[in-house]
Hints:
This protein has 251 residues and is mainly α. It contains 7 helices and 5 strands, in the order E-H-H-H-E-E-E-E-H-H-H-H.
Amino acid sequence: MVLLVFVDLDPRLSALDALGGFSVLRTGVPPGSALPTLASACADSRSGTPSEVYGDPITFRIQKVAQSIRAPEVRVAVSVAQQGLAARFWSIALGAAALCDRLPDLDPELLHWDPDAGAPDDLWLREVRFRPVSDLDAVVRAGLLVPLSAALRSRHRVAPALLWGNAGSALAGTVRQLDRWALAHGRPDVGERARALAGPLFAHPDLSGTLDPGTLRRRSCCLYYRVPGGGVCGDCCFERPPRPPRPAQRP
């Protein structure tokens, strides 16, 4: 038996390296300790099989993010962690579809996740196989974001609108990034294809109300403004960080 480490099983995926770390997808068997799959990570923490390395990988990741950004409350860390993963999923899938006209099957049973790592070393696809580009919604939204959202909400009190707002913002950000890359590298076709592919994705009810169609500003807040020194994001629904509520005065 031959173990493949740091090897792309299909050379067409190596083209993603040009798009930057968020679009890069490692393939083969992850090095070191066995990493959980996305499917096992998203299993209910009360019934799923804990990871030998991280216990509950989702809880591990949220705690890591919370410490890194000094989150004042856990749902801020939940939001930041989920938006980061959403951006990774969209960057890989939409990047491959727009640049290579190929969609890797990001089956959560085959996609391994290291909650202690950053892009591009956090995701490893054990077996490379492809699906039609028209399956983008099924691969990313239905296949990855829906179970991730359910897993987060089973562990923490976080609003679905916040999580889908994050997913919509991450998708729009991926399109902008691909458009910038396309202009810088003389490949306007890549930007045009990214925009064309993203349109139907935003038509799904989960994503259709996440951004204002005129301004592309999101209609929910990711809560990043609550991070010390965080401020508001470029597409935030707020122009400036909201003021904390005043304490109730005693009669």
